Each structure stands twice: as structure tokens, then as C-alpha cells.
Automatic annotation (TrEMBL):
Record has Isomerase as a keyword: no
Species per Swiss-Prot/TrEMBL record: Acinetobacter amyesii
Protein name, UniProt field: enoyl-CoA hydratase
PROSITE patterns assigned to the protein according to its UniProt record, in alphabetical order: ENOYL_COA_HYDRATASE (PS00166)
InterPro entries in alphabetical order: ClpP/crotonase-like_dom_sf, Enoyl-CoA_hyd/isom_CS, Enoyl-CoA_hydra/iso, Enoyl-CoA_hydra_C
Enzyme class, spelled out: lyase
Enzyme Commission number, as recorded: 4.2.1.17
Keyword ATP-binding recorded: no
Pfam assignment, any one: ECH_1
GO molecular function: enoyl-CoA hydratase activity
Lineage: Bacteria, Pseudomonadati, Pseudomonadota, Gammaproteobacteria, Moraxellales
The protein's role, per its UniProt record: Could possibly oxidize fatty acids using specific components.
Amino acid sequence: MQFETILLEKNNGVGLITLNRPQALNALNSTLIQDLNLALDDLDRDSSIGCMVITGSEKAFAAGADIKEMAELSFPNIYLDDFFHLADRIAQRRKPLIAAVSGYALGGGCELALMCDFIYCADNAKFGLPEVTLGVIPGIGGTQRLTLAIGKAKAMEMCLTARQMGAVEAEQSGLVAQVFPKEELVEKTLKAAEKIAEKSVVATMMIKESINRAFEVSLQEGLRFERRTFHSIFATQDQKEGMQAFVEKRQANFKNN
Ligand code: DAK
């Protein structure tokens, strides 16, 4: 598949999407959001793919939604078109999705990373929600997902003052899973993604679904959901294969069935 604003590669069970608008620091315009969703549709459907990765350039994961595209929009425009509604679909993907962030992840770029299941970042990463400096507020989940990730005090401070958070603080705050030297970010992320892709996709998708429940329902409901999901996975061949492989002291060969 050929896209105008992204690159798509598939290797060893992993789909790698590279945002590719270097002239605008990968600012998210409507074409990019559309391309990204088409690529994710393809990867979610492709049975050879077990994990997906979104990355940008060394300087910028994405410097926000495209301000030049948004500047002249009016309320009826954005309300009637439900502006950026396609962005919500990114968070609804079923297979594991990792963000590999180097450089700026600002505004919509930070929100895009937060829509992924977890974030790895480079030591030069800078996260921020600077919408307030443009006279607007975060609108693709930033006030909600950042608060869930790092707590009220830091989320309030970042959104109200537009302060950017560096890689070390992002790791200490629980925003990112690990920090790598920028030259190693993509390689390390692909290694982790390949490890995920080797597993049963049924199990990895159920883990994703179950963890995401923790943000939506009460503890009791979440525990019930996890228990039933655990019970149901015993209907799969992959459960038999995984446990048999342990008993026989060999690598499991999962077939996603
Ligand atoms: N949009 C458009 N172009 C951008 C851009 C952006 N967000 N960020 C950078 N660029 C462009 C610059 O205009 C410049 O283009 P030319 O002038 O060369 O044509 C080029 O990228 C290189 O940028 P700089 O020359 O500025 O590079 P520097 O290294 O000097 O500075 C920077 C890097 C990241 C500090 C700076 O570019 C910057 O401050 N960028 C803007 C960051 C920002 O404010 N991001 C938040 C955007 S607002 C919603 C939908 C969306 C949103 C909310 C709601 N709804 C559906 C409700 C989201 C809003 C946002 O994300």
C-alpha cells in the first residue's frame, strides 16, 4: 500500500508505521489521520501481524495537530464534520499498539502516543499539551488519558502552563514504559514488538482488552471480566499448545486458534 503521509513496513509479525511529513514535524493533518487509519485497518486485519508500532522522525514523533489546517475552521465546520473523529478509531484497535517516540510529542502528537497501549521513548523525547498557548484545549483525549497516566497534579500543570516533560521525568511519572538512547529506539521497540507478535494473538488481544477495562469499570466488574476471559481462553488450541510446550520443555508454536 502507498500513502502520502506515512510509510508502512511489515516484518517478523510486526507492522511498523512511520509518520512522514518532515516539512511539518509530522503535524497531524486530515490526510495523515486517514492514512494512519487505513494502515491500522490493514494491520489489524492481516493475520500475519501480531503487533503494531507507530514512530516518527528523530526530531519529532508529531508536533501536534496541523495548526495551519485548523486555523481558519469555524464551529459549524468542525461540529458538522465531527472534526478529527477518525482519530478516536486509533485507540480502538484490537492488536497491541506501541508508540516509539523520539523528539517532540506535542498536542495531538502526545495524544496519539497516549492512544497507543504503551510508549517507549528516546532520551531526547519531549511530551507536552501546549494547546492553551493557541487559545484552545486538548481535544483528542489529552485531558483524560494524560491524567490517567500521570495523575492530576502533573496533568493540570502541563495543560495549564504548557510545560514540556522530558524523557527521564516521563519514565518516572509512568507516562512511558522505558527510555532508550535515540539511535536505539526503533530497534529496541521492534524487538519488543516481535516478542509480542510471537505470542498467541488471542491471548495478547485479551490482555489488552482486560487491562483497558481497568480504566472503564469498577474493580469488581473488571475482575469478573478478567475471570470470564481467562475461562474462555481454555477453548483455544493456543492454550493447549502453550502449556504442552512448557511440559515438553520446548518453544510454543502458536497458531492463533
Ligand atoms: N502544525 C503545523 N505546522 C507545524 C506544526 C504544527 N503543529 N509544528 C511545526 N510545524 C511546522 C512549522 O510551521 C515549520 O514549517 P515552516 O514554517 O518551515 O513552513 C516546520 O514545521 C518546522 O517547525 P519550526 O521551524 O517551528 O521548528 P523548531 O525546531 O523551531 O520548533 C517546535 C519545533 C515543535 C517547538 C515548534 O514547531 C512548535 O512549537 N510547533 C507547534 C507545537 C504545538 O503547539 N502543538 C500543538 C498543536 S494544537 C481536536 C483536534 C485536534 C486537537 C485538538 C482538538 N478536536 C477534534 C476537538 C489538537 C490540537 C493541537 O495539537
